[in-house]
Specification:
Blueprint lengths: L1 E6 L6 H13 L4 E6 L13 H11 L6 E3 L2 H4 L6 H12 L5 E6 H5 L7 H7 L1 E6 L9 H10 L4 H6 L5 E5 L7 H9 L10 H10 L10
Parallel strand pairs: 1-2, 1-4, 2-3, 4-5, 5-6
Helix pairs in contact: 2-10, 4-6
Length: about 220
């Protein structure tokens, strides 16, 4: 069973990495692929270049067995849509391998606005990472999908390539990439918010020295 975690990773930080490791261990995944996007669809474009963000993620997980980096979205032109990425993965891995797409609770609340969301659920399971006390989504259609597809049996995920929704409590670290970029731009230290190897790359390449006015 393979886990997938996409994002801008602008930059990757311990909030991403701790949640990823939690799910990797708790779901006993064979591997978890971190997939940096190229062009964002539902949010502002990343500030750091794609190659730099890819290298930062590679540095962040270099010594963690089971966590690997997948560059298919960086290598693909155009908007980085999850459906396209899953189609590409299925062409590589086949139709029978169980896939688990990790998304945060906030992203899940808008899942039905994604490109071809129900087709995504045909191609993968969803693993919704949230706080233990988090409420169910308000959208009635999304609540219906959750009620029909939710499982708390790991065997259900392993028995099918996709189609189920698993809600997983993970370690919640109050770290944001936006805050890290702001600290760097204003001359403050971002140490202990992200791996030292990533911070060294940021300083070496002089990333995030200025802020986007829209953020």
């Amino acid at each position: 069973m393979i886990g997938l975690l996409g994002g801008t990773f602008d930059p990757v930080h311990y909030g991403h990495l701790r949640s990823a490791l939690d799910v990797f261990e708790l779901l006993m995944l064979d591997e978890l692929r971190l997939i940096p996007l190229n062009q964002a669809v539902h949010r502002a474009q990343p500030q750091a270049p794609a190659a730099a963000r890819l290298a930062m993620v590679q540095a962040a997980v270099a010594d963690q067995p089971g966590l690997i980096v997948d560059d298919r979205e960086i290598e693909r032109d155009g908007p980085s849509r999850t459906y396209d990425t899953l189609v590409s993965l299925r062409a590589e891995l086949g139709l029978r391998v169980p896939l688990c797409l990790l998304i945060g609770a906030d992203a899940f609340s808008g899942f039905l606005d994604w490109h071809r969301p129900l087709d995504i659920l045909d191609l993968t399971h969803l693993v919704v990472m949230q706080r233990p006390e988090a409420a169910l989504p308000r959208d009635i259609n999304l609540r219906t999908q959750l009620q029909e597809r939710r499982t708390d049996q790991l065997a259900d995920l392993r028995a099918a390539p996709g189609g189920r929704i698993w809600v997983q409590s993970v370690t919640q670290l109050a770290i944001s990439a936006t805050a890290i970029r702001h600290q760097i731009a204003t001359g403050r230290s971002a140490r202990f918010l992200l791996p030292d190897a990533v911070l060294e790359m940021i300083h070496a390449q002089q990333l995030y020295r200025t802020e986007h006015l829209s953020e």
